[in-house]
């Protein structure tokens, strides 16, 4: 079997910003809207990095380089579809409607960041690698059982494909024909482990063969390719064809998190080389060269992005701290006698100013 | 009212829950046509169809993990883990997922999931099948742990567990499945979670047991009574959250306590019960809280298990030790 | 991709006992030796079933139907290769040299059944589905690291392929190029769950594609196909080509265990149909029709088998019971203070005749 | 002798073990070029090569499960689980496999495997990363559980763990990794498993702690001393098997005991310690054994963790309560 031939990488706009595929199903306005989102999210991500460096937020996992994969996929969903992502998928959640302040609040250690606003059907970001893929199967299955017509889309990394839960998810989804779209953001690294060490296979898409489901490779830095592919796939999945595995080939432009130092393990040559085709620059090249956007308009987009991000920073930094005793309130629907007693003791301590740590 | 075994009472509870609420579904290995290896789900697939009684692939993490999604999505899954010893495979989906979704989402989502599993010894199973590791889950916030010891409680506790808005681990004493029968009302009733049951009144020693050890405790109490010692037997029924009040009240009255469990001794739930009693009823205690438990070894091969498991003799010896302290 | 074409079922002798492939690398003597083993093992298995029905042994998992897959695979190994199987793989262990009494002792609840005799490199039978596949990867890897030239062969069922550990095994083995041979005995049932419900794929062999390793389907009821295929594969694996996944297509002729009742879930029509091609009858047909065996010789083989099995039953039933306090002795290399105290208390109880259960 | 942090002491121990014994290998996620996310394995891949310092795929069950095979096959694997909270993924391979191979094979095989993992709070990690679930493993026969609180012990206990013929779970207090330095001998030495350390002498209250809570306990003891109460601090070092003798001896002397741990209270190892003390030293006890622990909730978000974790104030309050009982 010729894997490269079975699983070609779908592309609409190449790294140089040249249109190399069909984008007829995406309007100019939609493309420009995507661009505004990508610029905004990139701005947010870089700002978050700096805030961490200034000690204003805690550990932060940047998504720079992966905006197209996340936004393009979510754009293909309907409002009440489910999104189950991981710690790096704040671009997806933001595009879905979660306030831009949430990723910051998350890194500031605010519990509220786990409370996705009610109108958005997304799970809180997942820390345990691949665990969310099973939740997506269950959500999709529940939609099928209740005839809700909802699809569940789950994001996960290349590293996540090594986990047992990933395998169990795909197999179960295939068996019960759950309407799940599995979107792997193959950013080529799992912290310091390159994909070549994560697996001995050329692609992630080929894993679909094991489960007799469709597997597709798409250029994850090309938002039009991602969006169009997903649009088609989500439609078919919704109609009942069963789960699909998408491999969005992308690149983690920076560190794994603000606590990571990639110079320890990966050549900066690679970073330089792969940076060129990254999603924001690529789309900008396309828009400018095709005349859909002028340099002036671009400036404006960037200004607007900065302003939106500034608002988000403000919102996060002025966000009221949750009451510490909230920690007791969401363990069960009702406080157990133990938790009741413990909360009372805790509150007494707080009242006595018992906040000092020794 | 019918005279039912525990396994029949469980089967009836599942059927009633599915009848009453279309969101309730059963999933697990061999729960469909086969009706479960112990027949707990016997006949359900015929009544409720393959979409609500689902034979899953052989993957416990998937059973629990997908159930988390099903529950968030509006279903009320009752998942079966074929034997409690295979729940190790699901520790992540239980410990970091099912039990923390409410917390993580600050109440936006919750996971009304029941995980059923047969447990305990006395049935000559191969390795692993008889493990008692309830202590892991009692140490895991966000999930409740329930275990019946009678047909009446089996039905009532299971219905309460299915109604509960949070995940419940419902472990069923294998060796009691068909050990005896009891009158069980046909209609819906719930035995509230979090409340222990005084299985026998007494005032000199409090004997605390659950699941498969309750009959052993009762028999020991019976024999102690013949020897003139009055023993109160508490069947915990819910292991998490513990009914500390019932335990404490009893020990304040009796002044002596013995905890009995099959699980290995070190770090078993008996330790928590003992620690709690000495915290709450220190001044009432005439003797240390004694523990009669499995030994600190893996559950042994069938040829040894009867000797390894706590029996009335060992419980009686502990009662005596407490009396003579 | 045409799965049936990519993964044809290799066969040497068909269900009718006709030679349909090449058996040139197997001598007549070897074929007859295989036959003697298959008959002996089948006799043992049926005897064990009856012993359980008579209450002389406890729960027993029959391997009838799977003798060819197990024996053929083990026959392809060298003496010091590793074998990691499950509860149903006593045919493999017996052929490897474990006394025929061990499967009986195992079902009688004797701890000794876990102590594989020292000269055989096999792990005790595994109860936790798919757990042994990871041990095989580690054993093979250790052989590679120590240049021992040993291969590890692991048996598992069709149901086991759904487990996360199965996936993690194949991926890790492929990445570190561990000399493992993964042998799935696809007996088409996992207790009551048919393979069609276990997975939505036509074959188990195709899962190899996910890991970029070789995947082979072989007729698991055809000992010559199994043996020749494995002989070739084991050789290449030993030379360093990396792991291989074998799907031996077979059938569980009887119940899952003596505690199971297959009439609850599978049509007896299926049992009838698939029984015809079972390994012992098939090989007998071949041997008789090709003149390698006369009816008289066959009788003698059967008599010898009965005698060997009778010896095994005797050995098992007269096997001395282990000292119950042994339960304390193999938890750690040395007794902890806790275990020392507990053993002492236990021994006191035993001395006081404290064996009665109430 | 060099002045080392805990993380440096661990790194040195690993290097020495690998130098001395070619069977010792290190495997886990990011342990190679990256040297581990906390740098415990820094430099090892350069010294010992990619075959002995192995970046595995992201699959914890595979890390432990293949290590079981490696160990049986003659290697001495030291596996790293990146954070203790991810060990849930390996509960089956630890609980039913690594820890039972000796038992299952009746001594034919054994598993000299060390599983290292950073644990505990105070470092503002995301969810799950700070979990303290040592109680699960203390309740699992066949595996030992070890945790250092000082650089000297870190090296000596790790070397002893690597030498041990049985599986050892070696959990490392994240927040102490670089908290302070101590003289650590260059040469090989072992701190024996199963022996607690009297971190500070005293005769009115026994304070029992381990890992990250040892400095908190010491500080509380210091402050109590200023208030005129003499506190003995025991650093357990090995959590399984427990050094019951050292604990009992101390409590028989002091008559009061307080256990401190980060793990959630119910079913934590503190329960076992309390249960054991009241069994062994009942008549010496002037007050119930007190527990100062994490609350019965999941480990909270960073903005709350300092308030949630036991601190000197809470420990002091327990000491006072024990004194005033
Ligand atoms: C079960 C589990 N193991 C380990 C970790 C620690 N960890 C966090 S991110 C990460 C790498 C993930 O790589 P990948 O799946 O490719 O996602 P990416 O970070 O590249 O988005 C690891 C090992 C974890 N969070 N969960
Ligand atoms: C982890 C785990 N889950 C469940 C079981 C209970 N169980 C024992 S055998 C079996 C079916 C196994 O099917 P398969 O892998 O096809 O092997 P076969 O029995 O057909 O040889 C199940 C579910 C188990 N032993 N281990
Ligand atoms: Mg990645
Ligand atoms: Mg099978």
Per the principal axes of the C-alpha atoms, what is the gross shape of chain B?
Answer: globular
Low-confidence stretches of chain B: none
The level of helicity of chain B is 25-40%
Strand order of the largest sheet of chain B: 3-2-4-5-7-6-12
> Which chains share the greatest interface?
B-D, 48 and 48 residues
The CATH architecture of the largest domain in chain B comes to 3-Layer(aba) Sandwich
- Kindly state the number of beta strands of chain A: 8
Report on this model:
The complex is a heterotetramer, with two copies of chain A (358 residues) and two copies of chain B (325 residues). By secondary structure, chain A is α/β, with parallel strands linked by helices. Chain A contains 14 helices and eight strands. In chain A, the strands form two sheets. In chain A, strands 1-7-8-4-3-2 form a six-stranded parallel sheet, with helices on both faces. A two-stranded antiparallel sheet of chain A has the order 5-6. In chain A, strand 5 and strand 6 form a beta hairpin. Chain A starts with a helix and ends in a 7-residue tail after the last helix. In chain A, 59% of the residues are buried. The model of chain A has no long low-confidence stretch (mean pLDDT 97). Chain B has 325 residues and is of the alpha/beta class. Helices cover 37% and strands 20% of the residues of chain B. A seven-stranded mixed sheet of chain B has the order 3-2-4-5-7-6-12, with helices on both faces. A five-stranded mixed sheet of chain B has the order 9-11-10-13-14, with helices on both faces. A two-stranded antiparallel sheet of chain B has the order 1-8. In chain B, strand 10 (205-209), helix 8 and strand 11 (231-235) form a beta-alpha-beta unit. In chain B, helix 1 packs parallel to helix 7 and helix 9 crosses helix 10 (269-280). The termini of chain B are far apart. The chains are: A alpha/beta (358), B alpha/beta (325). At the B-D interface, helix 4, helix 6 and helix 10 of B face helix 4, helix 6 and helix 10 of D. The structure holds thiamine diphosphate (2 copies) and magnesium ion (MG) (2 copies). Residues 157-159, 187, 189-190 of chain A line the site of one magnesium ion.
């Amino acid at each position: 079997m010729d894997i490269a031939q079975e699983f070609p990488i779908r592309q609409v706009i190449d790294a140089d910003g040249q249109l190399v595929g069909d984008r007829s199903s995406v309007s100019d306005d939609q493309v420009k809207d995507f661009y505004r989102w990508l610029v905004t999210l990139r701005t947010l991500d870089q700002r978050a990095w700096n805030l961490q460096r200034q000690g204003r937020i805690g550990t932060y996992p940047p998504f720079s380089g992966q905006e197209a994969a996340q936004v393009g996929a979510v754009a293909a969903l309907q409002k009440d579809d489910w999104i189950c992502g991981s710690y790096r998928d704040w671009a997806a959640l933001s595009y879905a409607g979660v306030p831009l302040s949430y990723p910051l609040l998350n890194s500031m250690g605010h519990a509220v960041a786990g409370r996705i606003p009610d109108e958005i059907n997304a799970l809180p970001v997942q820390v345990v690698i691949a665990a969310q893929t099973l939740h997506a199967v269950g959500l999709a299955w529940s939609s099928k059982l209740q005839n809700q017509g909802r699809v569940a889309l789950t994001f996960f990394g290349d590293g996540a494909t090594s986990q047992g839960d990933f395998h169990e998810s795909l197999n179960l989804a295939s068996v019960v024909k759950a309407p799940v779209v599995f979107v792997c953001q193959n950013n080529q690294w799992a912290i310091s482990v390159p994909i070549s060490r994560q697996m001995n296979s050329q692609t992630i898409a080929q894993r679909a063969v094991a489960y007799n489901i469709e597997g597709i490779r798409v250029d994850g830095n090309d938002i039009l390719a991602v969006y169009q592919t997903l649009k088609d796939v989500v439609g078919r999945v919704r109609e009942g064809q069963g789960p699909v595995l998408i491999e969005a080939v992308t690149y983690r432009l920076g560190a794994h998190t603000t606590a990571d130092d990639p110079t320890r393990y990966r050549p900066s040559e690679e970073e330089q080389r792969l940076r060129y085709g990254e999603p924001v620059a690529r789309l900008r090249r396309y828009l400018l060269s095709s005349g859909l956007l002028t340099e002036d308009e671009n400036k404006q987009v960037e200004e607007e992005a900065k302003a939106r991000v500034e608002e988000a920073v403000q919102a996060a930094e002025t966000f009221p701290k949750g009451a510490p005793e909230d920690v007791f309130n969401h363990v069960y629907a009702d406080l157990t006698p133990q938790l009741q007693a413990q909360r009372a003791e805790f509150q007494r301590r707080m009242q006595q100013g018992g906040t000092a740590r020794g | 009212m019918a005279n039912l075994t525990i396994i029949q009472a469980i089967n009836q509870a599942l059927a009633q829950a599915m009848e009453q609420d279309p969101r309730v579904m059963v999933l697990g290995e061999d729960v469909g046509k086969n009706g479960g290896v112990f027949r707990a789900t016997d006949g359900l697939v015929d009544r409720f169809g393959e979409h609500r009684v689902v034979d899953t692939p052989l993957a416990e993490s998937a059973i629990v993990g997908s159930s988390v999604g099903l529950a968030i999505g509006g279903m009320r899954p009752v998942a079966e883990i074929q034997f409690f010893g295979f729940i190790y495979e699901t520790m992540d989906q239980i410990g970091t997922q099912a039990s923390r979704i409410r917390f993580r989402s600050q109440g936006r989502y919750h996971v009304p999931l029941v995980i059923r599993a047969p447990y305990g010894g006395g049935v000559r199973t191969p390795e692993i099948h008889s493990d008692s590791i309830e202590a892991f889950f009692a140490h895991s916030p966000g999930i409740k742990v329930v275990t019946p010891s009678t047909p009446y409680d089996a039905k009532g506790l299971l219905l309460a567990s299915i109604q509960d808005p949070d995940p419940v681990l419902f472990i069923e004493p294998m060796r009691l499945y068909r050990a005896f029968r009891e009158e069980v009302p046909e209609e819906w009733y719930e035995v509230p979670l979090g409340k222990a049951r005084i299985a026998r009144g007494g005032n000199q020693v409090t004997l605390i047991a659950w699941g498969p050890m309750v009959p052993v405790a009762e028999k020991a109490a019976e024999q102690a009574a013949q020897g003139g010692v009055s023993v109160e037997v508490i069947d915990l029924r819910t292991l998490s959250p513990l009914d500390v009040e019932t335990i404490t009240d009893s020990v304040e009255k009796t002044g002596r306590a013995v905890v009995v469990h099959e699980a290995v001794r070190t770090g078993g739930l008996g330790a928590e019960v003992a620690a709690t009693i000495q915290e709450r009823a220190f001044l009432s205690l005439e003797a240390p809280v004694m523990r009669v438990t499995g030994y600190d070894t893996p559950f042994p091969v069938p040829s040894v298990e009867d000797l390894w498991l706590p029996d009335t003799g060992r419980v009686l010896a502990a009662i005596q030790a407490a009396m003579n302290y």
